[in-house]
């Protein structure tokens, strides 16, 4: 298949879009971006519904986010063990289907006239469970779609597809909710799952790990994985850094509904514009980050990303005009894609295949614990001291911690490459497995 194959030693160059040369990656990317556009319809609708039903309470919005993301975090050990034990493609087909069913539950609730905020918070738990089983397998699956030397391109483009979706989804969703109501947003999300499920069905990937029938001990394996992580300083730094991103960055993006509506009076459409601005920043920055990956140390990229993230949060909260606040979200989106791509790549290049998904589950679990905690804490702070004050304090804190990480040399651990791989092996196959190089 030439360039359509996932193997091959031919050098296809180091351009930011080289991963699109591979059929598997291209097919899954297209399906994922369609599905994620739909998912943003639900991500916009739920905070707006909760904010409206609770008389503009950011604390309730934070609680809804906490209820959805906490199960996702707690399922990390189980999900990571499953993803290292069974076919990741099959796992993703099942988990994406479960998410479609959970999304359909919101359609039924809204159509039946359910208007209790507590009911939607409880329903969010089901969404979180399905997402929790999906995430480690998805993160690890990306590395099966392209050869190792094109991994940074694939990871960056994978992050970009989330942000392409964020560029389109929130803006359209804000108009849809404003014009036709949340029910249409929930319905669109449900239908778009067909795209990603279909793409996973039609591709074919090499079998790189055998299914195991021995008893699964996820908690014990999770604890053992933490022990493994502690031997890799770069991975420890990545996990510590993503904690900051989740607590201040992702939580701040979700709670921007309080800025859009409570501060600037822009309502559903304004909230959509804010999330879209973050997506636009990520899309604009993606090619530059992929290009710099071969020329600039990951520690330098990450340091600048953290400072930019903090500055964006401050601008979003302190801006006297809505347009300037949108620019703050734009900066946050740029910083987020730079940070996410750098941290993910650092982990992928420092982990062995035998524990790849489990290590990613620790990484994801940390992020998904930090984000709901940030939603709870920052949501309460917004209700008590105000959105502007909360955003400014959050941004300043993030910049200060970034300076400490750089001064202590912790970020330099991201530059290491100690994973057990050989460039001549089939993509993401550990050299000890009996797969021939090609």
**Arithmetic mean of pLDDT:** 83
What is the count of β-strands? 0
The CATH class is identified as Mainly Alpha
General shape: globular
What's the tally of helices? 15
Helix-strand category: mainly alpha
Helix content: over 70%
How are the SSEs placed, and which strands pair?
Blueprint: H1 23-53, H2 58-74, H3 76-85, H4 88-111, H5 117-141, H6 151-180, H7 182-202, H8 218-230, H9 233-254, H10 257-263, H11 267-292, H12 298-318, H13 322-348, H14 356-385, H15 387-407
Helix pairs in contact: 1-2, 1-6, 1-7, 2-5, 2-14, 3-5, 3-8, 3-14, 4-5, 4-7, 5-14, 6-7, 6-11, 6-13, 8-14, 9-12, 9-13, 9-14, 9-15, 10-11, 11-13, 12-13, 12-15, 14-15
How does this model look, in words?
The chain has 438 residues and is mainly alpha-helical. The chain has a single domain (19-201, 223-415), classed as MFS general substrate transporter like domains (Growth Hormone, Chain: A, Up-down Bundle). It is 74% helix and 0% strand. The chain has 15 helices and no strands. The radius of gyration is 21 Å and the shape is globular.
List keywords for this structure.
438 residues, mainly alpha, globular, single chain, Growth Hormone, Chain: A, 15 helices
How would you concisely characterize the structure shown here?
With 438 residues, the chain is mainly alpha-helical. It has 15 helices and no strands. It has one domain (19-201, 223-415): Up-down Bundle (Growth Hormone, Chain: A).
């Amino acid at each position: 298949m030439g360039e359509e194959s996932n193997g091959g030693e031919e050098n296809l160059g180091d351009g930011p879009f080289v991963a699109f040369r591979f059929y598997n990656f291209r097919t899954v990317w297209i399906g994922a971006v369609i599905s994620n556009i739909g998912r943003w319809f639900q991500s916009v609708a739920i905070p707006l519904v909760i904010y409206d039903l609770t008389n503009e309470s950011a604390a309730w919005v934070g609680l809804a986010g906490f209820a959805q993301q906490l199960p996702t975090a707690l399922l990390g050990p189980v999900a990571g063990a499953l993803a290292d034990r069974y076919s990741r493609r099959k796992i993703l087909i099942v988990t994406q289907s479960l998410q479609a069913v959970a999304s359909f539950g919101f359609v039924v609730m809204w159509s039946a006239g359910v208007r209790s905020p507590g009911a939607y918070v409880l329903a969010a738990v089901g969404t979180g469970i399905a997402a929790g089983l999906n995430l480690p397998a998805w993160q690890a699956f990306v590395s099966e779609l392209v050869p190792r030397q094109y991994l940074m391109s694939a990871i960056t483009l994978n992050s970009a597809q989330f942000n392409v979706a964020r560029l389109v989804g929130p803006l359209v969703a804000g108009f849809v909710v404003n014009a036709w109501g949340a029910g249409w947003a929930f319905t669109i999300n449900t239908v778009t799952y067909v795209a990603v499920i279909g793409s996973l069905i039609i591709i074919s990937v090499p079998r790189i790990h055998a299914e195991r029938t021995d008893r699964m001990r996820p908690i014990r394996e999770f604890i053992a994985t933490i022990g493994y992580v502690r031997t890799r300083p770069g991975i420890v730094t990545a996990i510590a850094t993503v904690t900051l991103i989740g607590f201040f960055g992702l939580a701040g993006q979700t709670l921007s509904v309080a800025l859009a509506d409570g501060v600037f009076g822009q309502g559903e459409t304004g909230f959509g514009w804010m999330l879209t601005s973050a997506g636009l920043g990520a899309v604009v920055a993606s090619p530059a980050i992929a290009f710099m990956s071969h020329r600039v140390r990951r520690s330098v990229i990450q340091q600048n990303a953290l400072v930019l993230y903090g500055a964006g949060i401050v601008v979003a909260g302190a801006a006297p005009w809505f347009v300037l606040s949108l620019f703050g979200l734009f900066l946050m989106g740029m910083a987020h894609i730079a940070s996410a791509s750098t941290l993910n790549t650092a982990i992928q290049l420092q982990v062995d295949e035998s524990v790849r998904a489990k290590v990613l589950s620790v990484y994801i679990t940390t992020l998904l614990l930090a984000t709901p905690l940030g939603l709870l804490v920052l949501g309460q702070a917004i209700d008590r001291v105000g959105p502007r004050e909360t955003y400014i304090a959050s941004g300043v804190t993030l910049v200060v911690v970034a300076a400490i990480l750089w001064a202590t040399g912790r970020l330099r651990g991201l530059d290491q490459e100690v994973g057990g791989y050989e460039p001549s092996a089939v993509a993401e196959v550990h050299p000890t497995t009996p797969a021939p190089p090609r």
